[in-house]
Amino acid sequence: MTDVVLVGLGGAGGIAAHVLTAAGAEVVALEAGPRRSAAEMTFDEIRNDVREWLAEPKARGELPTFRHSADQPSGPSPYPMLMANGVGGSTLHYPGLSARLDSWDFRHWPIDYAELEPYYALTERTIGVTRDLRRTGWTELMSDAATRLGWHPHAAPAAIDAARCTYCGFCTCNGCHVTAKGSTDATVIPRAEATGRLHVRTGARVVRIEARRGRVTGVTYVQDGRVLFQPAGAVLLGGFVYENVRLLLLSGLGGDQVGAGYMAHGTPNVCGRFPGRRLNLFSGLWSQATCVRDFEAGMLTASHEFKPIAASNLHPPSVPRWGAAWKAWLQANAQSVGTVSGQLETLPYEHNRLDLDPHQRDPYGVPVVRVTHRLGEHERRGFAFLRARMTEWLREAGADLTWAPDEPSVDARHCYGGTRMGDDPATSVVDRWGFVHGLENLGVLGASLFCSTGGVNPTLTVQALAWRTATRLTTSDMFSDRKPTVFEESA
Ligand SMILES: Cc1cc2nc3c(=O)[nH]c(=O)nc-3n(C[C@H](O)[C@H](O)[C@H](O)COP(=O)(O)OP(=O)(O)OC[C@H]3O[C@@H](n4cnc5c(N)ncnc54)[C@H](O)[C@@H]3O)c2cc1C
Ligand code: SF4
């Protein structure tokens, strides 16, 4: 028996482990992936970005299926979905852009910005969020252009140790070779393990949450081919959006709202050619960026980190995709192409949801999640609006040619909902603290709690919410014999 079992030790689970162990809790973390080391993090775009090796242990074999509407058969997703598996979760391979939501983003939430603000501050101090990454010709060019347009550009907030970062250009889809990221494997998890109260089991896949008479009793998991039961006083689910929903559905817990309110960020982008300029965007990292947050529709970002294979696709539609003309265009222009991208806020629609696919199973014979999702009129207008702003921005900075994909793009790795938080069990799965209605010792961590997407990257909010949920647990009756923890010293 342990006080708390954590399902998944990623961005959210790592934070919860830190908060719980600091408060004196004994915690068992069951993580499906392995521990990764800095030495494994080589500069290999094919392994990292194309094959997405960090998703091999679990996510690849359990990829959700996709359909645009309930009357269609499900099939492979047209959008990127893969997340990383390992101690640190998907923060292993994120470039750490760590922005807070705005106060208006909480319009449809049961909590407001003020309620989350202290947890934002604690998380930022603890994982090391800075605006001090090196500025470059590109970030300054775009900053000056935005200022001329009357906007308010700023350096991206990034969970990166600016002094240690080598600006290697292989940050996204890869772990850090010098441990400069604020990924949870490098920040909060070692602290939690140093207390002696965090017990990490890797290669441990949770397959079911067990409950009896209105309380969860623990989880069943598989490790090295053996089926085991871990009893616990409380369970916190931190397996990322798709797995949180899948485990609740497979366990028959959470009610009929599980899976409702699914959303994924729209990610418009526009490219521009800057004739005669060498922009050197292959160096640096995605969160070494100039951001603009003047528009409610979502944040705009001018970033670095164009790896060779990705950059070879950044040409206007008039240029062929292969052959001599393509090579000649790249030779003349590849160093002079810059892009800006957006994080378009999307809405929860009745028709968008997650459920178990009756026709598709993972290699263990368990149904995978099925996504039913299509964008609405709000998103189509949002795309058009943000694209127009991005084009304006690039032109103002000196681009003589701009182009963008015709179809709106969606990033299903920035996905949300499915265990929405709320005060009314008829329209939500968890309460305002993140605990499942009617099951007070089962908490959920992650973006599955979100009621709307907001227009910025999710993880800082995911982590602030996880800090708050874990804190709530430590102040429950279960912990009445432990001393309360004060976290001002977390930096
Ligand atoms: C390429 C890429 C770049 C990104 N960049 C950014 C960025 O710059 N800024 C930002 O804010 N966000 C970014 N994100 C999103 C960010 O990575 C996630 O929001 C964040 O990691 C989510 O945290 P989580 O704890 O919910 O899930 P994860 O961090 O994915 O952790 C979930 C963990 O649970 C484990 N797990 C799952 N199921 C089970 C099970 N059944 N049993 C045991 N363990 C299980 C998984 O192996 C995993 O380790 C990026 C994502 C991707 C893919
Ligand atoms: S860009 Fe910096 S933080 Fe990212 S992997 Fe390279 S050295 Fe690490």
UniProtKB/TrEMBL annotation:
Annotated Glucose-methanol-choline oxidoreductase N-terminal domain residues: 81-262
Keywords, in A-Z order: FAD, Flavoprotein, Oxidoreductase
Where is each Glucose-methanol-choline oxidoreductase C-terminal domain found?
348-466
Q: Key word Hydrolase present in the record?
A: no
Highest taxon above the source species: Bacteria
What SUPFAM superfamilies is this protein classified in? FAD-linked reductases, C-terminal domain (SSF54373), FAD/NAD(P)-binding domain (SSF51905)
The answer to whether the entry has keyword Flavoprotein is yes
Q: Which Pfam families match?
A: GMC_oxred_C (PF05199), GMC_oxred_N (PF00732)
Single Gene Ontology MF annotation? flavin adenine dinucleotide binding
**What family does the database annotate?**
Belongs to the GMC oxidoreductase family.
Extract the PANTHER family matched here: LONG-CHAIN-ALCOHOL OXIDASE
User: What is the protein name given in its UniProt record?
Assistant: GMC family oxidoreductase
Species of origin? Solirubrobacter ginsenosidimutans
